[in-house]
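Q: Is it fine to ask for two folds in a single conversation?
A: Yes, each is treated on its own. Send the first.
Q: Here.
A: Result:
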Amino acid sequence: MSDLDFSQPAEPAKKPAAPPTPVRQETTLYDPKLALKFFQIAGELEVFSAGDTIFAEQAKAGGLFSKGARIYLLVEGQVALTLKQKPLSLVMPGEIFGEVAVIASAPRTATATARKNCRVLSLDEKRFLGSLQQAPDFALMLMSVMAQRLRMGVERMFAARTGPAPIAAHAAGLDKKMLAELQHEMGDPTPTPARAGETIVNKGAAGVTMFVVTTGRVAISVDGMVVEHVGPGGTFGEMALLGGAARAASATAEVDSTWLSVGRKDFLATVKAKPAFGIALLRSMSERIQYVGKLLGE
């Protein structure tokens, strides 16, 4: 599949008859070359004709451990995402789609229809895990993109003056076994303690690591308003792993707590050795995004 190249457009650009639908990948954190590399490792090439439905809203994606669940990367053409027959966004070559519902083991939140003749690369569970072991940096990028999407959702709630309700604790975070494996991969460091009321990180501070709560509970707040409660196995500060991002929120221990600071090198090594680690974090992020979407009525 070495002929797949996104350095040039798949076809000459044409003047649109109407303003184009905003592209869904709204963040510069997304790297199409890295996504292509990841999908080329084990992706299956599929072809859809204009008008074909790739997947339908409310269809049960079933999660990565369900037969038939697939995540897609668009190689050529255009894919329209709609909800209740209303346009949501347009997927362009080099972009992925269908990832949130699959990773979160939730029904599809939109319908994907080939707007033009399309070629896509798709990954099922086995292929996804195989690619993840060879290109763990894809999990890092995708998690960071999801983290920014979550941040944007919270910002929209502030703008709408609805006030973000506390997001549920990370039910799909790392379990005790995964926490132990992560700690072992990092050389068995002693988790850092924080007393109740102690600030772990301040909004605006520079950061290069993410945090994993090992015991206790941490409140994540923006401008004094709590937007999330993070319990054991939960994470925060993920976007910093891409390098030098300013912290988008403050974190304060609500009760006596402990946490691990995970750097990029440790993250990549752990995902490569234990792909399930990356999937668990992606699933946690997906569920948080869906929760905020429900609060926004999306």
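Q: Second one now.
A: Result:
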Amino acid sequence: MAKTRRAATADGRGNGTLHPARRPLMKARAYQEIKAFIQRGDLAPGAFLAERQLAEQLGMSKTPVRAALVRLEAEGFITISPQQGILIRDLTVAEIADQYEIRTALETYVVRTLAGKLTPDQTARLRENLRAQAALPAHAPVARGVALDAEFHMLFCDFLGNREILGLMDTLREKIARVMATVFKFNPVRVKSSFQEHRAIAEAVIGGDGASAARLIDRHLEVGKQLLLSPRRC
């Protein structure tokens, strides 16, 4: 207990406030910023990262950076090799296909279950997202389009309230965000066509037509998957 009190007053404030989360917060910040850097596509898959350079850019020691990199490797964003170093990895054709199969199974279930059951507040949140998508200018940053797309799909999972589905969907969306950004960058018309599909899905859910909502989101995800896979090879 004495050790805890000394740690609490070590910052010189003398107010007895504990700060045990400082190091974990550094790890979390390193993880979020490095992941965002990868997802933005600032470096292409196959590029190398330097631990020391990352630490310098983030203004922290290598310890939290190293912990963040270990986590990112476990989640499939990078590969750490004693021989080659830290390599940004790309999703394979099989990984993309597998993730879309899981998403299709989850999201068709979610919209079918929610159809006709949205509260007025949930409907308003959904329509607000659609308004933001509709208002996207042609020159809008790709990251903004990806973020609104992710929000649209995650809203349904949030409304359903199943934390396991929400967590799994969040993980899948984050893994595929980088390749989605590539699709929007090289197929800018997809931003608008995706919005039209989103609007049809939303209206089916709001109107209580679960079968149509499931069919529409199935088709929507299939289009997205094919656009991601079309320039790739096994």
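Q: Anything structural to flag on that second result?
A: Two points. Residues 134 and 192 are 8 Å apart (CA to CA). Residues 20-88 form a domain with the Arc Repressor Mutant, subunit A fold (CATH 1.10.10.10).
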